[in-house]
Design a protein that fits this description.
By secondary structure, this protein is an alpha/beta fold. The chain has one domain. Helices cover about 35% and strands about 35% of the residues. The chain is built from four helices and five strands. A hairpin with a 5-residue loop joins strand 4 and strand 5. The chain is globular, with a radius of gyration of 17 Å.
Length: about 130
């Protein structure tokens, strides 16, 4: 059974799961352990590089993925770029979720404007 290894800042939506099953032929979803999830979701913007964080995630992915599996990578741009590059060097298939975004402006009673963003998964695209 093909797995989707998820290196992502949040849990997949129902739509993302259904699309992974239908378009990627995935039968199992494997999330980062909580300790690595905290690291991936909280990359320090003050650090000069993300080598340590990427190395931890890369090692976990390589321990949990086979050549037929797919890795979903999204997150802090520099870390995501580094991880994708290393995973592709290991000949793994790496994808990201494309989205449709809509912005809505709401005028508040105090005269200020709030902007709400609605983001909806469209499809997976290979890096």
């Amino acid at each position: 059974m093909k797995k989707l290894i998820i290196v992502f800042s949040h849990k997949l939506t129902d739509l993302q799961e259904k699309d992974a099953v239908n378009s990627l032929s995935v039968g199992d979803f494997v999330y980062l352990p909580k300790s690595l999830q905290r690291i991936w979701s909280n990359i320090d913007p003050q650090k000069d590089d993300t080598d340590e964080e990427v190395s931890l995630i890369l090692n976990w992915v390589l321990e949990n993925a086979s050549s037929k599996d797919i890795v979903l990578v999204q997150g802090e741009p520099g870390a995501a770029y580094s991880l994708v590059k290393l995973l592709k060097e290991k000949k793994l298939t790496v994808v990201y979720s494309t989205t449709k975004r809509e912005a809505f402006e709401i005028k508040d009673s105090d005269g200020s404007i709030s902007i709400i963003h609605k983001i909806r998964h469209v499809r997976y695209r290979e890096y």
